[in-house]
Amino acid sequence: MKADMPDKPTRGSAEQGETESYRSLVKQLPITMRPSLNGQLANWEALFPFERRRVQEFMRGFASFDALARDALLAPLRQLENRMGVQSWDFSQNADSMQNASLLARSAFFAEWRKQVQRIYTAVEDAAHASAQSAGQPSRLIVAILPRSLPFESANLWKKWGDRGEALSIDGDPARIAQLLLEGPSSVRDVLVQQGSLEASDLWLIDAGSGLPATPIGPGAVSSLTGGALGPLRDQVLAQVNTVPKSIEATDQTLDDIRGKSWDPWWPPELKDQARLRKFVIDLYLSGNGALIFSNAFVEWAASEAIRRARPRVLFARFGLRAKPKPFTGIAIFENQQRISALPGVDDPQGSAVDAAVLARYILLAAQRYPESGQTAFLCVAESAQSAYLLLPDAPRDNWTSSKKVTPEQIAQLLIQRLSTPPKDRG
């Protein structure tokens, strides 16, 4: 799959002036609040629009306090930092690091520190909201796909998913649902373009292999990540990660080196000009969550991080078939299974199905952490079981689902209609 528009943000003088004004505000914050914000400002060009808006919102709210109110707001945390001895720490103010996290976590005042930071963020965000006009949230859609290669029985498939959604029987080819949504006469991208969205972070296609339909060339943009195409890069990053030494300080340096490396020979062609997505992938690989080892873990964590960092309008996450872990190898310490064992790889459909079902539900749980979930339709399709789980959180259950047997065309039509209609306009 190919993203249609290169993601090459440029840093103009207006943006540079904006970030410089923010840096001066950050210097007025207590020391332990500076690393995160400074790190985001240093990588401003690689931030998704939602991340930028969050920083801008914080800065606007913080700037709205007069000097006396600002001192009163920050004084308790400054006093706590003195009690913690922060001034004597080897504490980076430029960006978050493992060293910083370790110093904070080992402090006897860590729990109190977290409360103080949360208090400040809440007050600043409240101030920002008070000075800004609130905009209604648009309709959103998340689709998780459990492909036909994974064996499922429909009887107990959705048992742990809760009763907020509907378990549906699909009358037809379940793979048609994604095809209709992505390639149909009124595709999700067509809807986004009609609504004025040309931003790549609004539409994500995350695939363990290469089973999602390719989006056609034309207006609009797509953030597309395919686990199979990223295989050579993944292997190179994994080899570098396995050189990380035992000390925290050296680990921070090694991870910084990995983030700063270009990796140009190993990027798939569709990501060559996608600077923001490339940084997203490297950050994902270095977050220690299994994305470097298992393709299904890559799909789940990429989807969860995209939801957290970009708040997309539409996201597709397609899981896949992985090989069985080889005996006498060290998955727990991130060893490359293909290179460390000469044994041939063997597909593991049953294990892959277990992984994918759990991880698909984790995507739903991740999305439900955020306010946008109230406008987000969620669909999980199990192709081998001719079954789906549909959750429409902001609407009563539709009459057409009462039989719990629907066609791919019905599902696609409903989801396109909901995406096209603002929540406030629904009956």
Can you give keywords for this protein?
disordered N terminus, alpha/beta, 427 residues, 8 strands, Alkaline Phosphatase, subunit A
Average pLDDT, all residues: 87
pLDDT < 50 stretches? 1-6
Tell me the major beta sheet: 8 strands, mixed
Major sheet: arrangement of strands: 4-3-5-1-6-7-2-8
Span of the ends, CA to CA: 37 Å
Structural shape: globular
| Portion of residues within helices | 40-55%
Task: Give the beta-strand count.
Answer: 8
Whole-number count of domains: 2
List the quaternary state of the chains.
single chain
CATH topology of the largest domain: Alkaline Phosphatase, subunit A
Instruction: Specify the CATH architecture of the largest domain.
Output: 3-Layer(aba) Sandwich
Strand content: 5-15%
By DSSP (H or I, 4+ residues per run), the number of helices equals 15
Order of helices and strands: HHHHHHEEHHEEHHHHEHHEEEH
A few lines on this structure:
This protein is of the alpha/beta class and 427 residues long.
Describe the structure.
With 427 residues, the protein is of the alpha/beta class. It has two domains: 118 residues, no CATH class; 286 residues, Alkaline Phosphatase, subunit A (3-Layer(aba) Sandwich). It contains 15 helices and eight strands. Strands 4-3-5-1-6-7-2-8 form an eight-stranded mixed β-sheet, with helices on both faces. Helix 12 packs parallel to helix 14. The longest helix is centred in the first third of the chain and has 21 residues. The chain is globular, with a radius of gyration of 23 Å. The two termini are 37 Å apart. The N terminus is likely disordered.
